[in-house]
Design brief:
Blueprint: H1 5-15, H2 19-28, H3 33-42, E1 58-66, E2 69-77, H4 80-83, H5 86-102, H6 105-110, H7 120-131, E3 135-144, E4 148-155, E5 162-163, E6 165-173, H8 177-194, H9 206-221, H10 227-245, E7 251-252, E8 255-259, H11 260-271, E9 275-284, H12 296-305
Antiparallel strand pairs: 1-2, 1-5, 2-3, 4-6, 6-9, 7-8
Helix pairs in contact: 1-2, 1-3, 2-3, 5-7, 8-11, 9-10
Length: about 300
């Protein structure tokens, strides 16, 4: 099939590989982008495991917390100017309060907005005319525990509990909830920085694991080693993969000499009882949303016109 320059550029942006290597990869895989990424990785050519569709949209992530529970939301705007607008920030904060009561996106969207007879969706729709650009409530989620704490962390905060990236971490324990929450907040900071794929190895997407195993196997066979040795090489590389993407197995950002799991065991001494991280949520603003690229001058001009 014919490979276009746009396809080559996309693969190059995803992997950091050279133009000719990208063209060869696409030719070998009949233009299948995901298979081309794997082809380059097997050849040891791919320089990065970047993911498509992560272009940032504007708006804010908001969090709100109660007793042993917390919620997180994302509300989008067209420009960063609006994200710094006090009226917009108030909306995001109120939507987070609603999420603390209702949790899931659909329920929050239909729920009554604080101080209004209208729903969250209707209120945001009305705000479009007031604020002057398109707005949208994208998603929400909630974590809670029977005993322990749910910690929150907001990175790049523009106001209290509002920013570009938010994390919730739930920790179950019958020990000191305040100390458990303090440790969970440290873990939330770790998650914000490292972005693990799963809490435990069992929670990893099986398809993703099989994909990595296939890549590791092809790489090992290229070395010409016997199958018995290849199997051990794959097992070792898979363990390394888990250490890179599984939260409990990752080196703890605040103390790289221990894993998050080991840090949790140490924290239990302060907490005064066994503790378990049961879940986490990480919302990065605009992840998965494609946004048309504009230069800063054009963005300013568009905002002025509105």
């Amino acid at each position: 099939m014919s490979i276009t320059a746009a396809q080559v550029k996309e693969l190059r942006d995803l992997t950091g590989a050279g133009m000719m290597d990208c063209k060869a990869a696409l030719a070998e895989t009949n233009g299948n982008m995901e298979e081309a990424v794997d082809w380059l990785r097997k050849k040891g050519i791919s320089k990065a495991d970047k993911k498509a569709g992560r272009t940032a949209a504007e708006g804010l992530i908001g969090v709100d917390a109660g007793v042993r529970e917390a919620a997180i939301v994302e509300v989008n705007s067209e420009t960063d100017f609006v994200a710094r607008n006090a009226a917009f920030q108030e909306i995001v904060g109120n939507v987070a309060k609603v999420a603390l009561a209702y949790g899931a996106t659909e329920a929050v969207a239909a729920a009554q907005y604080p101080g209004s007879a209208k729903s969250v969706t209707e209120t945001i729709k009305d705000a479009v005319g007031t604020i002057g650009e398109n707005l949208g409530f994208r998603r929400s989620a909630k974590l809670s525990v029977a005993n322990g704490a749910v910690a929150t962390y907001v990175h790049n905060a523009v106001a209290d509990n509002l920013g570009k990236l938010g994390v919730l971490v739930a920790i179950e324990t019958t020990g000191d909830a305040h100390k458990a929450g303090a440790f969970a907040r440290q873990v939330a900071m770790h998650i914000a920085a490292i972005n693990p794929l799963a809490l435990t190895t069992d929670e990893l997407d099986p398809a993703a694991v099989e994909r990595e195993k296939a890549i590791f196997s092809d790489q090992a066979r290229a070395s010409g080693k016997p199958e018995a040795i290849i199997e051990k090489m794959v097992e070792g590389r898979l363990r390394k993969f888990y250490e890179e993407v599984v939260l409990l197995k990752q080196s703890f950002v605040l103390n790289p000499d221990v894993t998050v799991e080991q840090a949790l065991k140490e924290a239990e001494k302060e907490i005064g009882a066994p503790a378990k991280i049961t879940a986490y949520l990480r919302f990065a603003l605009g992840e998965g949303i494609e946004k048309e690229e504009t230069d800063f001058a054009a963005e300013v001009a568009a905002t002025v016109k509105k």
